[in-house]
Amino acid sequence: MSIAHGVRTLGVLGAGQMGLGIAFVSALRAKVPVLLHDRSEDQVKKGLALMDKLLAKDVAKGRITSDLAKDARDRVTVVNELKGLRDVDMVVEAVSESLPLKESIFASFAAELRPDAILASNTSSISITKIAAAAVPAGTSAASDAGKAGAGRVVGLHFFNPVPVMKLVELISALQTTPETLDRARAFAIACGKEVTTSKDVPGFVSNALLMPFINEAIMCLEKGTATRDDIDTTLKLGMNHPMGPLQLADFIGLDTCLAIQQTLYEGTRDSKYRPSVLLERMVDAQWYGRKNGKGFYEYTD
Ligand code: 3HC
């Protein structure tokens, strides 16, 4: 028997490349009304402009009718305050990779949102168990019924960039996550047209525990002068049929995001194989974040 996700309205926190993509597939594929919140008005403006562009492209390619595109766009409403998400059935947090930031957001969710709402994080590597601990209502013990219920509705729902194109969602259970939360979150990802894999709550889960050492090794090859940027990327693209070389992919994900994930992996495992390369650290020091701000291993003018 298929489990219903029960999401009549979705909240998305963060209108960056991930949050916007999640809002897009939820509105277009799962056909669910979305309330989108970001503290930066500029980010929301850019996000909505990208959504219009993606919908127009799908119409131009004959994949959807203009009515369907309009319906999807009309399902997305911007809310100016986190409080505006108070009646959603599920929220997906897609802000930057910082544990203190996510802890404060999940504490606010616990205080503001309905007690039966699912609280999902799109984190790439931060412990879902730690995030869930922040959703225990204030003044309540984690072991009490209210504490367990608060944390039990937290789950990891890890989408991949670009969300409209990538077919996977990785589902991560915190120690506290209830089976019902997991089933509903999985059903929601499937309604968004995604295939779902599950991972235990270990640093980086399956995806980034494998991807980040690969990217880091490529950066170290460049650092050591083993090969040029283009030869490293071409080797992987043509030799292994990867759609992008690892340096191109690092730029695409964002070098700041790659570094934050690698730091979480290294701190969480204390395994030297996850230690970020000095070159990556220096590029982030220089505020070269990759495609998102025009300069990374490559230069971007669009
Ligand atoms: N948003 C939405 N759609 C996008 C997009 C974006 N940012 N970038 C590209 N696309 C769409 C294009 O519009 C095009 O759609 P169409 O088929 O409808 O025309 C389609 O993707 C293919 O794009 P292009 O023809 O322009 O270019 P490519 O064939 O080179 O594909 C790519 C682009 C899909 C990005 C491909 O290079 C790719 O798959 N790269 C690897 C991406 C990847 O590995 N992502 C995972 C990153 S890890 C992650 O997200 C986890 C996190 O925790 C770090």
TrEMBL record:
3-hydroxyacyl-CoA dehydrogenase C-terminal domain ranges (all copies):
204-300
Q: Which residues bind NAD(+)?
A: G14, A15, G16, Q17, M18, G19, D38, E97, K102, S124, N161, K292
Which Pfam families does the record associate with it?
Answer: 3HCDH (PF00725), 3HCDH_N (PF02737)
Q: One GO molecular-function annotation for this sequence?
A: oxidoreductase activity, acting on the CH-OH group of donors, NAD or NADP as acceptor
Question: Is Transmembrane found in the keyword set?
Answer: no
Name the pathway. Lipid metabolism; fatty acid beta-oxidation
The record places the site described as Important for catalytic activity at H158
The answer to whether the entry has keyword Cell membrane is: no
Q: Which UniProt keywords apply?
A: NAD, Oxidoreductase
What's the domain of life for this entry? Answer: Eukaryota
Q: Name one GO biological process term.
A: fatty acid metabolic process
Which InterPro entries does its entry note? 3-OHacyl-CoA_DH (IPR022694), 3-OHacyl-CoA_DH_NAD-bd (IPR006176), 3HC_DH_C (IPR006108), 6-PGluconate_DH-like_C_sf (IPR008927), 6PGD_dom2 (IPR013328), NAD(P)-bd_dom_sf (IPR036291)
Which intervals hold domain 3-hydroxyacyl-CoA dehydrogenase NAD binding? Answer: 10-201
Which PANTHER family does this chain map to? 3-HYDROXYACYL-COA DEHYDROGENASE FAMILY PROTEIN, 3-HYDROXYBUTYRYL-COA DEHYDROGENASE
UniProt record similarity statement: Belongs to the 3-hydroxyacyl-CoA dehydrogenase family.
Q: What is this protein called?
A: 3-hydroxybutyryl-CoA dehydrogenase
Species of provenance = Mycena venus
Lineage of the organism:
Eukaryota, Fungi, Dikarya, Basidiomycota, Agaricomycotina
